[in-house]
Amino acid sequence: MSASYQSILWNRQKRIYDFVLIGFVLTYLVIFVLGMLIVNPQVTQETMIIRSTSTLALLLLHVILSIGPLARINKVFLPILYNRRHLGVTMFFVAAVHGVFSIMQFHALGDVNPIISVFTSNQHYESFSKFPFEIFGFFALIIFFLMAITSHDFWLHNLGRRTWKALHMLVSVAYTFIILHVLLGALQDETSPALIAILGVGASSIIALHIISGHQEHKKDKEKHLFQSGFLKVCHVDAIPENRARVLIANGERVAVYKYDRKISAVSNVCKHQLGPLGEGKIIDGCITCPWHGYQYLPLNGTSPPPFKEKVATYDVKVLNNEVWVNPIPYEEGTARMPAEF
Amino acid sequence: MIRSYRSYHFFLWRILGAIIPLTFVYAVLVRPASIRQDKNAKTELKVNVVQQSASTFTIEVIISGSIPGPSCIARQIAVDTTVLGQINHAGKYVFIIPKMNDPSIIELYNPVQDVIIESFKLSQQMPTTSNR
Predict the structure, then answer these.
(1) pTM of the model
(2) Interface ipTM above 0.90
(3) Which terminal CB of chain B, N or C, has fewer other CB atoms within 10 Å?
(4) DSSP state of A77
């Protein structure tokens, strides 16, 4: 969260995150190269680079795609979500090394432009097993590139949150391309069932996690609340932990109902940064704090503390017989509403 | 996320949950037969001379079993070494090769690992459609 753009807003957590990430990447590459030298000492350096970066990028992509649903299923995983974009950019660089070396090795030695060669060297477009798998990797890399260059908040702000989010949700399309790239490429010549099994387990896990978490969220969206005198019943005040929230479905969208200092306030559940779930955060230093990247809002009026300018919608709240009720009609973003006291 | 994105996201992954496993199974099933076989299965080379003229042999190279290694070429070893062609899969390949004064050898060779996979001796006196 910053009032002006900086290339990276470093803090201790990000440094630790990146230190662990770089350490993992280097350790993986060293172990892979040593393993290949033992198993297959005749392998060329180019092949070693192509294989090590392909497997590493595939592994990182699986980790990246697991983080979102895991964090929704269990809050223990939220700290990994915090700096996921650095993980994504790292994965792009590793995948780019694989792509560039592959094109150099297999397509740059003829008299055809290497990029054109990717599309024309194998023309079995009618065949499934002989399909030019390289083009799936090529298009996936284009999506990863667009995601990596627009990962900074500068682009989030300038593209608009909806466009930015839609662009970054293309990762699932890129993942499908990558699975096809591997299935129709490396695995067509792979004799070991172990590698096929590993990819199968990876893909099944990603799909299962997304479907399970999606189903949970879908179920939450279908929750019905008692409606009386223009207010929706949320729960008993004791059911909301101090400095935490309960989430209510109002007119199809979610509302975060926070309890703090014997008061109750309600704001939109959608963070203005990356549409994170404010209701899954907590109150820190008097501010509702988004669990994804730490964006903060005052519970009284839904505005970020100065000098920040983000605002979310607020709602009227009342407490009757220790039951919390919320008016489902939102006020304009940043409108101050008196909290209900109990 | 807002509700429309959540719905889109859930819908998309349910679609992918059907497409990816089906594609996966199909892609494994349609792999070339030589790959699906046991990688330890021995490569077998059979050479038939299907036609000969005064100066050339037309030979039929039949390869069964899996091809070990990342690359395989067929070559003729005589006074000089002549690469006949690239072998990608088990199957039947036809090559026209010159007759030599001395017997020559037809080899399946893995150039990446510098390994001779199989070899076959070819001589002037070979009858047409002979087997190894």
Answers:
(1) 0.76
(2) no
(3) C
(4) G
